[in-house]
Design goal:
By secondary structure, the protein is α+β, with helices and mostly antiparallel strands. The protein is built from 12 helices and 17 strands.
Length: 370
């Protein structure tokens, strides 16, 4: 069992400013937000075929539980996790099998399930379940090890980076990404720059990876009771400014290898960041609103692509077309949250929402102004 002491060091206002500033748009998660990968199954039965059938059913149930936990706050998950197997099956769009191993009476694999986005959203609305919108891109993690030799980032001998690389993939709403550590990365930033919060270096590395935020996770060695291995971790989430969101101490149990402790620490750090995002980016049915906007278009193909983009935003419940002409459309946007959140989500897709004397206009950011 991991020994874990967490000390949250940030003010609520500062946290709200940080998380609230991040655009609530699907970004890099748009294609896999409703997919759950790496689900392990291991079933023994009377035959390989029977074991496989049971494994696929078990994996499907696990994947659905993980998706619900990703999208819905814990206190509203009850009706959703209580679905029958056949109801969950109706929500599955496709599945993939990896690392398949078959014996006469056993089936082992890792499975990926992709769920039907429209059906899942309908189900959430039916149960009036709040759901969480994802960030506008991955959170780029810079794991800095602060040992006797100074801060290490990309150098060999960084055990903290090795732990991030070895940790199982997070199934949360936030996608965590490690930089490649290639020559371009080495030229952009090093351990000392990351640890000191060098704004220019952090902005450069974030832009290189299209990151919504940069997580500077600094770990240093220590000793717990009975000289058990201990690691102190300070985590900062950076987006334009640096905010310390928490400090954690992890102490090994007797006989626990330091490498295992570090991987557990990675899991806890990611969980804390994911929970903070969820708490600040929940959309509830009572937050529904609507807005009438004029949309200039350059033809049918442009309109089709534009409508698809708008409709793909999790914050947008639906788009009703009230008028359509060759050069423009008028739409009623049904969305969750306030106008500023809607603006931020649209901006992530290079769309500009403006209010003028004649009402609201929604246009592409690169569209010429009259």
């Amino acid at each position: 069992m991991i020994g874990h002491v967490r000390r949250w060091a940030f003010a609520a206002a500062a946290a709200a400013a940080l998380w609230g500033a991040l655009p609530a748009a699907p970004g890099a998660r748009a294609d896999d937000l409703f997919a759950v990968s790496g689900v392990p199954v291991d079933v023994t039965a009377a035959s390989a075929a029977e074991a496989r059938t049971q494994a696929l059913a078990d994996g499907q149930r696990q994947a659905w539980m993980l998706l619900v936990d990703r999208l819905v706050p814990a206190e509203f998950q009850g009706p959703l996790v209580g679905l029958t197997d056949s109801e969950v099956t109706d929500l599955v769009a496709a599945f993939e099998v990896e690392d398949e191993k078959v014996a006469p009476d056993r089936y082992i694999a890792h499975l990926t399930y992709r769920f039907k986005e429209d059906r899942v959203r309908q189900l959430l609305q039916m149960y009036s379940a709040p759901y969480v919108v994802p960030p506008g891109g991955p959170f780029l993690v810079l794991p800095v090890w602060e040992g006797e030799g100074g801060p290490l980032l990309f150098e060999d001998g960084n055990p903290w980076r090795a732990a991030w690389e070895a940790a199982p993939r997070s199934q949360g709403i936030v996608t965590f990404l490690l930089p490649e550590g290639d020559l371009a990365d080495l030229a952009a930033i090093d351990g000392a720059m990351a640890a000191s919060g060098n704004a220019q270096a952090l902005a450069e590395i974030a832009a290189r990876y299209g990151a919504a935020a940069v997580v500077v996770a600094r770990a240093s060695p220590g000793a717990g009771a009975e000289d058990l291995p201990r690691f102190d971790v300070t985590t900062q989430v950076v987006r334009g400014e640096t905010v310390e969101i928490g400090s954690d101490s992890f102490v090994a149990s007797i006989g626990q290898p330091p490498e295992e402790l570090m991987i557990q620490a990675v899991t806890e750090v990611r969980r804390g960041i994911d929970s903070a995002w969820k708490a600040a980016n929940v959309l509830t049915p009572d937050m529904a609103d609507q807005l009438l906007a004029a949309v200039p278009i350059a033809g049918l193909a442009d309109w089709t692509a534009l409508r698809e983009t708008i409709g793909s935003l999790p914050i947008v419940q639906r788009v009703d077309v009230t008028a359509l002409r060759a050069d423009g459309a008028t739409i009623m946007l049904h969305y969750f949250g306030d106008v500023e959140r809607l603006r931020a989500a649209l901006a992530e897709k290079s769309l500009v929402l403006e209010e003028g004397v004649e009402g609201w206009t929604l246009r592409r950011a690169d569209a010429a102004l009259d």
